[in-house]
Give the backbone structure.
Amino acid sequence: MKNYYKLKCLVTESFYEDLLDKELNYTSGQTANKCFVDFSRRLSKKNIESVIVISTILTRLVIHEPKELKNFLEDYNKMLEILKKFNLDDYLEEEEKEDILYDIDCIEACIETHVKKD
């Protein structure tokens, strides 16, 4: 995909700008919620861009506040449903595919470790 890393960087930058904004004083969970609102147009398409946005936001939670993922299981499940509708090979280069699958695996492992135990 021509803009895979550009979109991923845009989402990541937005997340950290909001997380580090002293005036907002957001938690990681609040920041993730804001990102979902900020990128709602891309999320509404329910395509590869949606998967990139969701996986990037949720991976930030894995890094900063893994237990917070319990509040985003609906988004995670939406991403998995979208993934069933197409083949990643049709949209992503091999390196991009490996990157997104790594993120998804990290999210899944974190859910297994931090969410399903609660």
The radius of gyration is 14 Å. The CA atoms of residues 19 and 26 lie 6 Å apart. DSSP finds six helices and no strands in the chain. Residues 94-115 form the longest helix (22 residues).
